[in-house]
User: What shape does this take?
Amino acid sequence: MGGVSESGGLTPPVTRGILSLWAREGKWADITLSGLSMSPLIPDGARLTVRFGRSGLAVGDVVLYTTPAHLIAHRVLRLGRGGRRWGWVKVKGDPVHPTEAAWIPVEDVVGRVVAVSRPDGSRMLLNTSTGRVAGRLSAAISGPVAWVEGKLLRLVRPGKRLILTPLLLRLPAALHDRAAAADRPGFIRLGPAERFLVAAASLRMDPPGVERLRRLLARDPAWERIVPDAAALGLAPVAYRNLQRPDLRDLVPPAARAALGRAAHGSACLMAIQLAGLDRILDAFRTEGLDPVLLKGAALALTLYEQSALRAMKDIDLLVRPEEVGRAVSILERLGFRAIRTSRKPSFYASHHHAVPMIDPSGRLIVEIHRGIVPPSGGLDVDPAPLLARSVRVTKEGRSCRVLAVEDQLLHASLHLSYTDRFLGRLRDLLDIHALVESSGGLDWGIVIESARSWEASRSLYATLDLSRRIIGTSVPAEVLSELLRGARWDPVAAGAVRALARRNLFTGSDPGRLFSDRLVRGLCDTLLRRPRWSSRILSLLGAIGRQEHLTA
Assistant: This one.
């Protein structure tokens, strides 16, 4: 059998308790294998990346399951679908004799292996489309082929070990190796102005980033496009700070530097006014016993950015429990805020994810009181209670407030970028996502993936992380993207179409000539992100195109 020892060296009783908790929470962790029952795919001493939990089990998966004395890694040969086998799983080590296969209760399964790091340094992904094909092939060889070989050996050479089965298992192992060699993150081709915006607005300027920006400056960028786009996309403060570095400042034309500085200073002044208003609002809320959670721009300004004034924002978003929304609105009214007149009926905001937007007497500060994080009309079911429970308190610039945990900030930023705003003019949000992944000090990808699965938001999260990886080079583990893709049940055509639409939308400010209206593109993104079946997608697409033609007629 393929025994597994937890890499932290926990004793077996403690390990079983922790594994049970990890299975409930969908933990993502690395463990180390000892044994040869899964060779040649998984040799002795290999490190396994495991997604704990039982969701989405399929024939061919390599799973971890518990026995009274061991934690075992074996392959799934069959799933009990009915009758006396319902709720049971048949598992077996790849090269061992068929008599060692066993039916185990599905409750004993604690996780699924998504990647394998071998002692020789090679790495295989088991949750990609190629990995799943190789897994099913391994199950066929380890099951029916090994059974036939075992029967023949009993007749011809009793007591002999399997010979043909281990040799045939080298075929799916070679398929895994070829797939791993071909796994290279693709990149999206950008125009010169777009590449410059991405490089100039980076939150963390490391030496390679500085050198890349220096090379782009040497190519005489189109400042007449870059400066207004940076201001329109909310990137002026960070871009101005980066271009003011002593080793880069002289490479920027004075007129462009002055224009960018004016946009950056204007944004910083507005942010200072907004943060002063935020302090006043939080003091009033705490006096009344409310402790809201900051969302989006305000939260990111206080957690991601070296100086909060570097992050532009349009309004302040505060998350409270649904039953506290009325009290929060009343507090704002006592501070002089009034509801903004909109075309929506009052009943709309009673069930919307936030109450009617409120504006202060100066007209410079807009506040939205949230009862949830996404609009309820799109089909996502996001319970705010776990988000509030996982929220953390941060203190910066003398300001103490609650924000979402970093995993929940990543999920919210991804949903806001894709699901809510359809990527339209949101390059800054993509850079925020990149910074959340790179500067988090170690995300718990299990929480991220499990939350996306339970919210049915895997497509949105995959789209944003894949886009960030291709445009900015965000170091999202390939097995995480593969796991999201598997959970989303997304075909390559739909994923590629969303990628193309998102690439077009992110740089809306730098693409004045548009073949399709923003409304049509938003509709196309909605269709692909929110509808899992092509039949409903096609009907929705035809309707969107018809509306486009009606508007242009």
